[in-house]
Amino acid sequence: MKVSDFNYELPEELIAQDPLENRDSSRLMVLKKETGEISHHVFHDIIDFLNPGDCLVINNTKVIPARLYGVKVGTQAHVEVLLLKRKEKDVWETLVKPGKKLKVGAQISFGDGLLMGRVIDIVEEGNRLIQFSYQGIFEEILDQLGEMPLPPYITHKLEDKNRYQTVYARYNGSAAAPTAGLHFTEDLLKKIEEKGVKIARVTLHVGLGTFRPVKVDEVRDHHMHSEFYMIDEEAADLINSTKDQGKRVICVGTTSCRTIESVADQEGHVRATSGWTQIFIYPGYKFKCLDCLITNFHLPQSTLLMLVSALAGRDHVMKAYESAIEEKYRFFSFGDAMFIE
Questions:
Q1: Measuring CA to CA, which residue among 216, 298, 221 is closest to residue 257?
Q2: Structural domain of residue 106, as residue ranges?
Q3: Across the chain, how many H-helices and E-strands are there?
């Protein structure tokens, strides 16, 4: 299976640069995975496609303002640091630009010394391990100095940081938002619960590895980066009771999907646990727990597009994307949504 099998041409003007004023007013394409049938709706209509007894699985990770701008001590060269993964309390794996200027031992000052960093190691793909030092609480300093790590295809400045968070974001740790969840409002979630739909909250801290371009020709040769996940007893019980009752488990986003599929047994049951997952889902994968998926429109040749194709079939998905382009849907993080049922 070739990575090029998941390519498509997207007009640049269809890349959503800004979030809509109302989260749930984005468009919603509904794709029937068995037949490939497509219909067009508004996102708040999603409630009409959810049934009492279904379980909606959402990822309650919270994006940290992980992009920092600083200067190298001694040369005053400007550097950019993107926090990827916390390794220890004050040690982070980071992506740095320009990398050549930051060898082991280099020191970086952020916010006129409010936060200091020292490169202590260089790891895979040139990522740097940086040890930070500061007075006070790291998260508060990060909130003061950091910027939201928007994907490179978004060139507009984000005026409100909260628009790159879901309304149910709770646990700090992501370098990118679980963007399928951006369409939900608190009011819509309340109406969904009132209809009798269960909501299970899991956590997967999204790393940038999810969005990195696939650089191999063969899909099977791609290596996924690990991401930390948590499933508590309450979420596991909600998901398992849904499977036992013959109802549907519907994941909001590929991150929720990868979380439950990482731990599901052959009967589709999950357990309360935490750990690191490198699960790579592409066509040929047999889903154990997930039945349906709410997701956004993904980049060409991305692992996310491969996951969606594993669920609905590559041909159905590529035809759906052709339709989305014809209908001028908005693509990627701040774009429109798809429900695969």
A1: 298
A2: 67-145
A3: 6, 17
